[in-house]
Design a protein that fits this description.
Strand order of the largest sheet: 4-3-2-5-1-6
Pfam families: Acyl_transf_1 (PF00698)
Distance between the termini: 26 Å
Low-confidence stretches: 233-240, 250-261
CATH topology: Malonyl-Coenzyme A Acyl Carrier Protein, domain 2
CATH architecture: 3-Layer(aba) Sandwich
Mean pLDDT: 84
Number of strands: 6
Protein name: Acyltransferase domain-containing protein
Organism: Streptomyces broussonetiae
GO molecular function: fatty acid synthase activity
Keywords: Acyltransferase, Multifunctional enzyme, Transferase
Number of domains: 1
Length: 261
């Protein structure tokens, strides 16, 4: 979490800084029934696309073969989406809601779900399908043979979905602008290289964002903010995410979030 003053808009940042480490979210799962229920729901929706149940992989003992599966793109992407979707639902239950959402690379689909573009079922279908396709590429990279075919197959899956206009401002990580009618085009959701976060942070700051909450396994993006924003040194306050502070409602949040389906 990062606060650049206590007024202004709130942005949720759905990051893609790294795959969740084994056990990420274990404490929230034990202490927060809303988070546990949401995580179990998302994992159950993604399990049909995976070789092993996602929850078992996410909470496997560190150092085991099962835990090491999180290093594979076919598990890392679903684990990231499940974690972010559950965190989002938890924050909503505490009354912490965004005015704008931003999803970076692999976090793009969770941001789209939060903004109401896709239902949970649709988002899980997209995430699960991409995971299944990536599983055929042991070391996925844009230049690897077969990637064009993979993206084509993923695009055909996206074309079967029914995206809606975002109910919350959703900022594109490729253009740094709010998205609109282009969300209805399947090609828009095919993975593309994002802009540097410095550009994104500046664009969001110019729209009045002053409170930043990162969803995902870490806080890489909010740690970058002091070097990205004008006047964000000295009087600004930076924190790693403090779920107890958020639960207590001591941080500002404005605007209604989309209903959960």
């Amino acid at each position: 979490m990062f606060l650049d003053g206590r007024t202004g808009r709130t942005a949720f940042l759905f990051s893609a800084d790294a795959s969740p480490r084994p056990g990420t979210g274990r404490e929230l799962r034990a202490e927060c029934p809303v988070f546990a229920e949401a995580l179990d729901d998302v994992c159950a929706r993604l399990d049909p696309y995976l070789e092993l149940p996602l929850g078992g992989v996410m909470f496997a003992a560190d150092g085991t073969h099962t835990a090491a599966l999180l290093e594979r793109a076919s598990f890392a992407g679903p684990a990231l989406f499940a974690l972010q979707a559950a965190q989002y639902r938890l924050l909503g239950s505490w009354g912490v809601r965004p005015d704008v959402v931003y999803g970076q690379a692999a976090g793009r689909m969770a941001a789209a779900y939060a903004a109401g573009v896709f239902s949970l079922a649709e988002a899980c279908h997209a995430v699960g399908t991409l995971a299944r396709l990536l599983d055929a590429l042991p070391e996925p990279a844009p230049e690897r043979p077969g990637m064009d075919g993979l993206l084509g197959a993923y695009g055909r899956t996206l074309a079967t979905l029914h995206p809606r206009a975002p109910r919350l401002p959703l900022v594109c990580d490729v253009t740094a602008r709010p998205v609109g009618a282009e969300t209805a085009e399947a090609e828009f959701w095919v993975p593309r290289a994002p802009l540097p976060f410095t550009d994104m942070a500046g664009a969001l700051h110019r729209t009045g964002v002053r409170t930043w909450i990162e969803l995902g396994p870490g806080d890489l993006l909010v740690r970058l903010l002091p070097g990205c924003l004008p006047g964000s040194t000295g009087a600004a306050f930076a924190f790693s995410r403090d779920w107890e502070v958020l639960r207590a409602g001591r941080e500002p949040a404005a605007g209604p979030g989309p209903g959960q389906r």
